[in-house]
């Protein structure tokens, strides 16, 4: 028998609370790990829902999930830190993002160098002087 009332399996792929990465009780962090989205989006959805009239149901649901969900194992908490194959943010995805950023900065650097070469050219300065006349 599991230690929660939910039929989902516990562990890295199951639904659990993650108080280590959470702000209050770790419910949003656990939901974020389960649905493979960042916890800040879960928190934002809860805040927006509260603002638009769902304050009482959200508070009741949060308290119920705090009581019913088990605290996640250490392996699940470490998965969010980038262990390969576990959690939504593994090293390969992070490496792909970093490679994408490097390529973007490289292309921006090339564009900036082309603009700089054009601005310091004699032709640009000559056109500038003609405009000033």
What is the terminal-to-terminal distance?
A: 87 Å
Order of helix and strand elements from N to C terminus:
HHHHH
The number of distinct helices, counting runs of at least 4 residues, comes to 5
Give Rg in angstroms: 25 Å
Average pLDDT confidence is 76
- The proportion of strand residues reads under 5%
Shape: elongated
Please, how many domains? 2
Largest sheet: none
Low-confidence stretches: 1-12, 79-88
Q: Would you count the extended β strands for me?
A: 0
What is the SS-derived class?
Answer: mainly alpha
Fraction in helix = 55-70%
Structure description:
It is a single chain. This protein is an all-alpha fold. The chain has 2 domains: 1-89, no CATH class; 92-133. It has 5 helices and no strands. It has helices at residues 27-35, 39-68, 74-79, 91-119, 122-132. Helix 1 crosses helix 2 (39-68). Residues 1-12 and 79-88 have low confidence and may be disordered.
Task: Describe how the helices and strands are arranged.
Layout lengths: L26 H9 L3 H30 L5 H6 L11 H29 L2 H11 L1
Helix pairs in contact: 1-2
Briefly, what is this?
Helices cover 64% and strands 0% of the residues.
Question: Which structural traits does this protein have?
Answer:
single chain, 133 residues, mainly alpha, 2 domains, 0% strand
């Amino acid at each position: 028998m599991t230690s929660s009332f939910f039929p989902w399996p516990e562990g890295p792929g199951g639904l659990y609370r993650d108080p280590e990465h959470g702000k209050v009780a770790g419910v949003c962090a656990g939901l974020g790990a389960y649905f493979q989205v960042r916890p800040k989006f879960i928190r934002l959805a809860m805040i927006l829902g509260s603002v638009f009239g769902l304050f009482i149901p959200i508070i009741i649901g949060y308290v119920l999930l705090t009581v019913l969900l088990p605290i996640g194992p250490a392996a699940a908490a470490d998965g969010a830190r980038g262990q390969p194959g576990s959690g939504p943010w593994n090293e390969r995805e992070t490496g792909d993002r970093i490679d994408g950023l490097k390529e973007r900065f490289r292309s921006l650097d090339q564009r900036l160098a082309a603009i700089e070469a054009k601005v310091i050219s004699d032709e640009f300065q000559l056109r500038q002087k003609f405009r000033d006349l």
